Amino acid sequence: MNDAGTPILDASQWTEVGRARPHESAVLHVLGQATYTDDIPETAGTLHAALGLSSRAHARILGIDLEPVRASRGVVAVLTARDIPGTNDCGPIIHDDPILADGLVQYVGQPMFIVVADSHDNARRAAKLAKVEYEDLPAILTPQAARAAQSYVLPPMRLARGDAESAFAQSPYRVKGELYVGGQEQFYLEGQIAYAIPGEDRGMHVYCSTQHPSEMQHVVAHALGLHSHHVVVECRRMGGGFGGKESQSALWASSAAIAAARLRRPVKLRADRDDDMLVTGKRHCFHYEYEVGYDGEGRIVAAKVDMVTRAGFSADLSGPVATRAVCHFDNTYYLSDVEIRAACGKTNTQSNTAFRGFGGPQGAIAIEYVIDEIARNLGRDPLDIRRLNFYGKADRNVTPYGQAVVDNVIHELVAELEQTSDYRARRTAINEFNRCSPVLKKGLALTPVKFGIAFNVTHLNQAGALVHVYVDGSILVNHGGTEMGQGINTKVMQVVAHELGVDLERVRATATNTSKVANTSATAASTGADLNGKAAQDAARKIRERLAAFVASQFGGEPSEVRFADDTVFVAGQALRFGEVVAKAYLARVQLWSDGFYATPGLHWDPKTMNGNPFSYYAYGAAVSEVVVDTLTGEWKLLRADALYDAGNSLNPAIDIGQVEGAFIQGMGWLTTEELWWNPAGKLMTHAPSTYKIPGISDCPEDFRVRLFKNRNVADSIHRSKAVGEPPLLLPFSVFFAIRDAISSVGGHRVNPPLNAPATCEEILKAVAYVESASA
After folding, report:
1. For labeling, which of 123, 126, 479, 699 is most exposed (least CB within 10 Å)?
2. How far is CA 482 from CA 347, 525, 623, 642, 704, in A?
3. Are 326 and 610 in contact (CB under 8 A)?
4. Catalytic annotation on 42?
């Protein structure tokens, strides 16, 4: 509508996508009225469960005395592996992950039994009363130890292109070394939770905080010995996921369902934060051994890297994570002759899992570390070395795994950021500051990002949706994606509103539910809006075409000439209100609902050769960070951050900018403060907010400039937009390398500081001491 409240005359002026719309649940969040799983009113007779956890990293269970547990106040039942009616497994790919340990425990915190009681507190207190007799076995705790023992959850993988050995023989210079990058706890605000309610004919309805309802449906069905049609899994929203609720919500969903099925009563299983962090997997830490050959200009001519991850005791999603790390080692750089190896080390720790970026950040940081060293060795600005090695447009544009980079905008994006951030002038000013400041040292870094978008398991790149138009003109959309705060529902609603030419207020999104859209993929790999937006668009398009055919038959003209915009249907020179058209169509028995489906085209991948076209397109970005480091204490502060991100033709700039900001701070936490530490007995000691430091508001820079790069996706994505979930997490590489730059200034930039991540104060002080010693 225009300012006078009358319909617009030119439908092409109107759009719903590309507008900065608020999150669809924003008001509910602010008012505290948004319903999460634990907010659902409890059905009469609801019981509460807790898990009994192992206190050993690797041991045989010789005996468990559960009588003190059963005798504890309020306890109704205690269940072990023998009480599982179906399959005792919750592994998403390899079936090596028992729901409950049966005779063998493989990490401190592994569930051994389920306590069901009349309250959460009674269940949790009782779970600690079991008397367990163990026979300890040797434990492997680090990826380095796993490599030494050849202990892997999957066979190691290798990707090679060209002849790295010959290229090394001809390269004038080499850099060789090791790097360790730690893992990261997802630290979603809402912990793991499932609420299982038994129904008729062995049915089970599970409300679950999960990114993958269909996977939960499969696991619960298998655990109960049922078919998938017996199980409904529903998720309205999550209080954060970040990958930690992709596969690992299965343990909680299946445990609640097992107890509910056994007792024929509703059972809620809500993890306390300590238990959640002890039981669940994290981002994979990586250890790297690298060697890179380069010429006098700084151009890379040969590269070898051997990566090993701490996978944990089972495979979980470690294979796909390692694969993505291999495919992102190149980042934005052309590598002609390369050998990349990756292994998933089997350790007696939590089974690590998905985390925002899914191996991509771990792969890309290694090459950035190397380029940082090359620049210092040659006495050049790292930005110049990065730019020299960028992928080309017409040549030097094929990745090591064989995919052509056809949408390369990294040159233009970095040039724009270099100019808008005053990178060169600030570099000069920082050099002068450091010359005059013996204790406080400033650092500056600009780092780029190229991130592939798609699941690297091809068949997962599909989605479905349902769209209903009701007689009053209101619209309900259901799709297979899950809302974890990232705004997928808002974007899908905008897509549907745009397709039907209506105001966004007409559209509502419902809870994700396996009985509505079946066989959904996880909301992961940054594909949520891409896949589900396309599926919802397909469903809405079918309804629009039916309505167009109907109004053309009533008012004249061709269906293809009918336009939908601004809550109005334009047909044969007339402007009809959308609600009026819908009411007439219903009386004429026009179908006003439809399903939609989308499968990403052009994807293929051979896991044996590690070659193919695994990605639909690439998202790009870059960031500049400026830090100041106290070389006496190791303390540091981010003074300013400039980020420029390629969201394509953004569906919702407000949501996308928010995602970039959040990803930047989360990635900064991973690389600087969030340290996971296991004691020698294998117990995770950083298992609570008191011992695990995520960034706070005081860690955000006072000067934080985030912009979207003006671009349009060359791939036929939803309205030519690009994904925004995971790629921005790589932007705070600039923070890590700015810290390294500041440390390097202690020795006049003549020594490469051996800085591991997270760059805690202790790590910074060790690196400073090394530089001082090497410069003496």
Report:
1. 699
2. 31, 13, 29, 30, 29
3. yes
4. no
Distances in Å between the Cα of 221 and the Cα atoms of 204, 216, 254, 422, 757 are: 9, 8, 8, 58, 41
| 210 φ, ψ (degrees, to nearest 5) | -145, 145
Catalytic residue among 165, 726, 763, 772: 726
Range name among 4-13, 241-250, 294-303, 694-703 with the lowest pLDDT average: 4-13
DSSP assignment letter at 568 = E
Q: Mean pLDDT, to the nearest integer, of 22-35?
A: 97
Q: Name, in order, each residue with C-beta under 8 angstroms of 276's C-beta and a sequence gap of 6 or more.
A: 191, 192
Residue 473, Cβ neighbours under 10 Å: how many? 18
Greatest CA separation for the chain: 89
Cα 233 to Cα 739: distance, rounded to the nearest angstrom: 45
State mean pLDDT over 267-273: 98
Residue 698 neighbours by CB distance under 10 Å: 7
As given in the structure block, the two tokens for residue 127 are: 């779970």
- pLDDT surpassing 70 at residue 6: no
- pLDDT digit string (tens) for 279-300? 999 999 999 999 999 999 999 9
The rounded distance, in Å, linking the Cα atoms of 711 and 720 is 9
572, 557 contact by CB (below 8 A): yes
pLDDT, average across residues 584-609: 98
Joined together, the tokens standing for residue 676 give 């996971």
Give the CA distances from residue 364 to residues 369, 411, 610, 751, in Å, rounded to whole numbers and listed in that order. 9, 18, 17, 23
Residues in the chain: 776
Q: In this structure, are residues 328 and 451 in contact, taking their beta carbons and an 8 Å threshold? A: yes
In this structure, the number of other CB atoms found within 10 A of the CB of residue 427 comes to: 18
- The Cα 575–Cα 425 span in angstroms is 57
pLDDT digits (tens, 9 = 90+) for 181-196: 999 999 999 999 999 9
**Contact (CB, 8 A) for 365 and 757:** yes
Residues 194, 197, 203, 207, Cα dihedral to 10°: -30
With 0.85 as the threshold, say if the pTM is over it.
yes
From residue 479, give the alpha-carbon distance in Å to each of 205, 466, 718.
18, 6, 15
Write the Ramachandran bin of 109: left for phi over 0, alpha for psi from -120 to 50, otherwise beta: left
Q: Which residue has the tokens 């979603």?
A: 188
C-alpha–C-alpha distance, residues 227 and 249, integer Å: 20
**Mean pLDDT value across residues 710-716:** 97
Give the model's confidence band at 2: pLDDT under 50 very low, under 70 low, under 90 confident, else very high: very low
Q: What percent of the chain has pLDDT over 70?
A: 99
d(CA 451, CA 719): 19
For residue 509 the two structure tokens come to: 């999104």
Whole-number Å distance between alpha carbons of 320 and 279: 21
What pLDDT band is residue 1 in, cutting at 50, 70 and 90?
A: very low
List the structure tokens of 412.
């233009």
| Region 323-333 average pLDDT | 98
Question: Which pair of structure tokens corresponds to residue 404?
Answer: 């052509």
- Nearest 5 degrees, angle CA 112-CA 117-CA 122? 90
Span 622-680, pLDDT tens digits: 999 999 999 999 999 999 999 999 999 999 999 999 999 999 999 999 999 999 999 99
d(CA 555, CA 417): 53
> What is the rounded CA–CA span in Å between residue 471 and residue 587?
9
Asked if 114 and 259 count as a contact pair (C-beta separation under 8 A), the reply is yes
Q: Look at residue 10 in the predicted model and tell me its pLDDT.
A: 66
Give the type of residue at 771. Answer: V
pLDDT greater than 90 at residue 454: yes
How far apart, in whole angstroms, are the C-alpha atoms of residue 103 and residue 134?
10
Closest among 117, 115, 113 to 73, alpha carbons compared: 117
